[in-house]
Structures are given as structure tokens and as C-alpha cells.
Amino acid sequence: MYSSIDMKSYDAYEPYISSYTMNIHYNKHYKKYLDNLNNLLSKYNYEYSKEELVKNIDIFPIQERDNILFNLGGVLNHELFFSILGYGEMSEIFKNKIDEDFGSFANFKEEFIKQAKLLVGSGYTFLVLNKDNNLEIINVANQDTPNSYGLVPIMNLDLWEHAYYLDYQNERNTYIDNFFSIIDFNKVSKIYEKEIQKNI
Fold first, then answer.
1. Model confidence at 200: pLDDT above 60
2. Considering the entire predicted model, what is its pTM?
3. What is the mean pLDDT of residues 130-145?
4. Domains and CATH numbers, the chain
5. How far apart are CA 115 and CA 124, in angstroms?
6. How far, CA to CA in Å, does 40 sit from each of 37, 61, 141, 143?
7. String of b and e for 10-37 (b: at least 16 CB within 10 Å)?
8. Smallest Cα–Cα separation from 37: which of 10, 73, 6?
């Protein structure tokens, strides 16, 4: 059984995301994915982390894999999104990598926002680490996860309507623009540095 992550505070991200939205997002959406996943897995014996489970999906009957992957992606994607919200500063190591791969932080921010606004329907915009240890910005649909493609998620923006509609209605672009006001880049830096250490 997988356990839920802790939510720092529902009102910590106001006025950009309301406590009402965060409460519903965490307790109604994220926890539903987690409950569904645990229920689907309850009849199997496994000893995988959630990330490892993505890579070993073929141990399950083929007729159940899509449902498991959908709910597993919903858990992984939400846990990353919630974990990187906040107000920390990025490390020098991560800043240097951003500059190396995007030219500058300003270029990175501009490209991330541009890609997020291009996503059609429900999904996420991710900053990922690829197999060459370079950073890329990608969009995924629904609850797909970059882990399925050998990519390591570093940070993401939830673009499902439940993440923003109660606060922004049809002004999704404003929600996207505001995202950079509530990213804990200290946490993002730690995720990046931890993944880089695995490849040394």
C-alpha cells in the first residue's frame, strides 16, 4: 500500500491558488488516484517504488495495465506538483544547468510558459532530465508520466481544469503565468541534484 504525501498548507499559495482549490485538488483528486491505485494493486504482491512500478508494468495482466498506469501517473504527477510548490531559491548547481541548457533563467521561464500554453486539453508541462543528463521541457496528456519514456521529472505544472478552474475559470493563461510565483526552486534543485548523483 502506498501512503499519501503530506500537504504543507492549503492556504500557503494564496492568492495564486486558493485554499479551497488546494483542498479539493489534494483530498478529492490526488487521494482518489491513490485509493484507486492501491485498490488495483491489492491483489498482487510487489515490492516496487512508484517509479519502479512504471518500468515494471508488464508484470500485470495486459487488460489491467492501462488502468494501473493511469492512476499511477495521477499519483506521481500530483505528488511532484504538490512537492515543488513554495518559495525557495534555486541552488547554484541547478542555476548553472538552467543557464547551460536554456541560455538563461529568463529563457527557461519563457519556454516553459510557452509550452504550457500550447498544451491542448488535460495534462502537464514538465521539466525533465533526459538520458544525456540534459534538461528538456515537454507536455504530456492526461496522466501520462515521463517515467514511461526513460525521462526523469524534475518539476511540473498541473493543467487539468481541477487545478485552476475554480480560481481562474477560462483564464488558464493567467494561471500559467502565475505558476512561477509559487515554485520552490530549492526543492526543484534538490530533485535535480539527487538525480544527477545517481548517474555519476
1. no
2. 0.95
3. 97
4. 19-83 (1.10.287.990), 92-198 (3.55.40.20)
5. 10
6. 5, 11, 22, 16
7. beebeebbbeebbebbbeebbeebbebb
8. 73
